[in-house]
């Protein structure tokens, strides 16, 4: 099996397939993603989410903010299972979605845990990390604000944020409050979309 042109092992493929089946089952009862995107689950959500790990395939501790239906956090946790190292802390305040995430982690033997708390309270509970991810949560300025407890003044922590075609405007807005190094990774799945890699975060005076 290939995702975005990269070979995926049989074990990881089986975990992803089991997750997809679970997702379809739970999505009938709770709103995990926009219903209009359910028919394109593999391309629109699973392949898209896998790009984060493909950009940064390191066995580090991740924080996934506003995990929702598990994108990209569960997908990253599934890939980490193959490495037998690293961990994803999924932060999701909605208890129904958190219950789904726990079930998905358990049944796929993925490397992660769920924190059913507000993002603003997560740093105290989770502690330091090496990478942060978020998808379809808020604009870049808001994402950096949420991520700042982990990233400010810490060279070893990077943020990986999915963004759509309006990402340049979001970058300009964020630079009004923050200084940061930026890498733009063009999406292999969605035309005009990117994954923004943020590092060396500083707050403007």
Write the SSE topology.
Layout: E1 2-3, E2 6-7, H1 10-27, H2 41-55, E3 61-65, H3 73-83, E4 87-91, H4 95-108, E5 112-115, H5 122-126, E6 131-134, H6 140-151, E7 158-163, H7 167-174, E8 178-186, E9 194-203
Parallel strand pairs: 3-4, 3-6, 4-5, 6-7
Antiparallel strand pairs: 1-2, 7-9, 8-9
Helix pairs in contact: 1-3, 1-4, 2-3, 6-7
Pfam family, one: GidB
Protein name: Ribosomal RNA small subunit methyltransferase G
Enzyme class: transferase
Compact description:
It contains 7 helices and 9 strands. The protein has 205 residues and is of the alpha/beta class.
Explained architecture:
Strand 6, helix 6 (140-151) and strand 7 (158-163) form a beta-alpha-beta unit. The longest helix is centred in the first third of the chain and has 18 residues, at 10-27. The radius of gyration is 16 Å and the shape is globular. The strands form two sheets. It has a seven-stranded mixed beta sheet with strand order 5-4-3-6-7-9-8, with helices on both faces. A two-stranded antiparallel sheet has the order 1-2. Helix 1 (10-27) runs antiparallel to helix 4. The N and C termini lie far apart (49 Å). The protein is an alpha/beta fold. It has one domain (2-203): Rossmann fold (3-Layer(aba) Sandwich), CATH 3.40.50. The protein is 40% helix and 23% strand. The mean pLDDT is 92. It is built from seven helices and nine strands.
């Amino acid at each position: 099996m290939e995702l975005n042109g990269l070979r995926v092992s049989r074990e990881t493929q089986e975990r992803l397939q089991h997750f997809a089946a679970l997702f379809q089952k739970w999505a009938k009862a709770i709103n995990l993603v926009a219903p209009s995107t359910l028919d394109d689950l593999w391309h629109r959500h699973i392949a898209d989410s896998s790009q984060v790990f493909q950009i940064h395939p390191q066995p580090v501790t991740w924080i996934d903010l506003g995990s929702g239906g598990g994108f990209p956090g569960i997908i990253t946790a599934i890939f980490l299972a193959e490495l037998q190292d690293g961990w994803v802390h999924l932060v999701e305040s909605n208890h129904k979605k958190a219950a789904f995430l726990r079930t998905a982690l358990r049944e796929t033997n993925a490397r992660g845990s769920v924190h059913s708390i507000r993002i603003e309270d997560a740093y105290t509970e989770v502690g330091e990390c090496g990478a942060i991810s978020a998808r379809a949560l808020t604009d870049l300025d808001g994402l950096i604000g949420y991520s700042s407890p982990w990233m400010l003044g810490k060279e070893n922590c990077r943020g990986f944020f999915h963004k759509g075609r309006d990402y340049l405007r979001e970058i300009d807005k964020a630079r009004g409050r923050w200084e940061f190094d930026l890498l733009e990774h063009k999406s292999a799945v969605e035309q005009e979309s990117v994954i923004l890699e943020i590092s060396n975060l500083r707050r403007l005076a």
